[in-house]
Design brief:
This protein is 35% helix and 18% strand. With 168 residues, it is α/β, with parallel strands linked by helices.
């Protein structure tokens, strides 16, 4: 049981200057984590460099890299991002069913890896495929069942439920 639950800020991929402004805005609102979906139109390392310049101590960025990469690409990206204290974790770097790739990536990547899409219904946690898991828009019953799996594996998980104050 927790007396409080951390809540993260979300934005979209933008120019480095606009990403830095988003970090400033999120931090001013009291957030300490910011998630965004990376895209091929923006340089993630340049964005990170700009965000690092304005981020308060302890502020972290959650990179959702959208499932379509190779292990080697993500290892290299993680190596570059890990040079910045603001770099927090990488979500969904590989295709959903690439379980062998997930295992290799977790062993080689400099940043923690989180998976959102769970083809095995959460049993991935018992296989040691990631440093954490995300449940998105999951019904309460699924959250409770999967929480047991994550607890048994001693692996953290987070919920992604987009909405206003009632959802929060």
């Amino acid at each position: 049981m927790r007396s409080q639950v951390p809540v993260g800020y979300w934005t979209v991929s933008q120019t480095p200057a606009k990403m830095a402004a988003e970090v400033g805005h999120a931090a001013a609102l009291g957030y300490r984590w910011m998630k965004y979906h990376t895209d091929s139109f923006h340089d993630v390392v340049a964005q990170t460099r700009a965000m690092q310049e304005v981020a308060p101590p302890g502020f972290k960025v959650h990179y959702d890299v959208n499932c379509d990469n190779s292990v080697d690409h993500v290892v290299e990206l993680g190596r570059q991002l890990a040079a910045y204290p603001v770099a927090g974790l990488i979500e969904d770097p590989l295709r959903t069913h690439d379980l062998e790739g997930m295992k290799l990536l977790r062993a080689r990547c400099a940043l923690p890896i989180v998976f959102h899409h769970l083809p095995l219904g959460g049993r991935e946690a018992l296989m040691g495929l990631a440093d954490g898991y995300m449940l998105g828009h999951a019904p309460v019953g699924h959250v409770v069942a999967r929480a047991g799996l994550f607890e048994a594996a001693n692996v953290p998980f987070m919920l992604q439920n987009v909405g206003g104050n009632v959802t929060r």
